[in-house]
């Protein structure tokens, strides 16, 4: 599925370089690949990227619900070095500082004068997951 989308984006880039409009591009692509192949709005979004100089046809990472692996990475880093800041962790694993702080809170970590420490009186995520059992 992703390869097909990437191919259609390459077609969008082709028409963009031929100075076609988003409407014309949508019409030409849909004439060959079906009416639901792309929407005009999607073509507009990609044309906007192309105008900014980004001519990659590969879709970037999306925001959304982070994976469990990210939470495990945060925990591992804090266990290795409790003095890491949320900024440092976010730079290392490419997450927002807010997401890192949320993970740490969910994992039961609090900040004290020496850095992060586990607070076993704080509710953690696994406790909340079992509430519905």
TrEMBL record:
<dbReference type="GO" id="GO:0035861">
    <property type="term" value="C:site of double-strand break"/>
</dbReference>
<dbReference type="GO" id="GO:0031297">
    <property type="term" value="P:replication fork processing"/>
</dbReference>
<dbReference type="GO" id="GO:0003690">
    <property type="term" value="F:double-stranded DNA binding"/>
</dbReference>
<keyword id="KW-0808">Transferase</keyword>
<dbReference type="GO" id="GO:0015074">
    <property type="term" value="P:DNA integration"/>
</dbReference>
<dbReference type="InterPro" id="IPR052709">
    <property type="entry name" value="Transposase-MT_Hybrid"/>
</dbReference>
<protein>
    <submittedName>
        <fullName>Histone-lysine N-methyltransferase SETMAR</fullName>
    </submittedName>
</protein>
<dbReference type="GO" id="GO:0044547">
    <property type="term" value="F:DNA topoisomerase binding"/>
</dbReference>
<dbReference type="GO" id="GO:0044774">
    <property type="term" value="P:mitotic DNA integrity checkpoint signaling"/>
</dbReference>
<keyword id="KW-0489">Methyltransferase</keyword>
<dbReference type="GO" id="GO:0042800">
    <property type="term" value="F:histone H3K4 methyltransferase activity"/>
</dbReference>
<dbReference type="GO" id="GO:0005634">
    <property type="term" value="C:nucleus"/>
</dbReference>
<dbReference type="GO" id="GO:0000014">
    <property type="term" value="F:single-stranded DNA endodeoxyribonuclease activity"/>
</dbReference>
<feature type="domain" description="Mos1 transposase HTH">
    <location>
        <begin position="5"/>
        <end position="54"/>
    </location>
</feature>
<dbReference type="GO" id="GO:0006303">
    <property type="term" value="P:double-strand break repair via nonhomologous end joining"/>
</dbReference>
<dbReference type="GO" id="GO:0003697">
    <property type="term" value="F:single-stranded DNA binding"/>
</dbReference>
<dbReference type="Pfam" id="PF17906">
    <property type="entry name" value="HTH_48"/>
</dbReference>
<dbReference type="GO" id="GO:0000729">
    <property type="term" value="P:DNA double-strand break processing"/>
</dbReference>
<dbReference type="InterPro" id="IPR041426">
    <property type="entry name" value="Mos1_HTH"/>
</dbReference>
<dbReference type="GO" id="GO:0000793">
    <property type="term" value="C:condensed chromosome"/>
</dbReference>
<dbReference type="GO" id="GO:0046975">
    <property type="term" value="F:histone H3K36 methyltransferase activity"/>
</dbReference>
<dbReference type="GO" id="GO:0032259">
    <property type="term" value="P:methylation"/>
</dbReference>
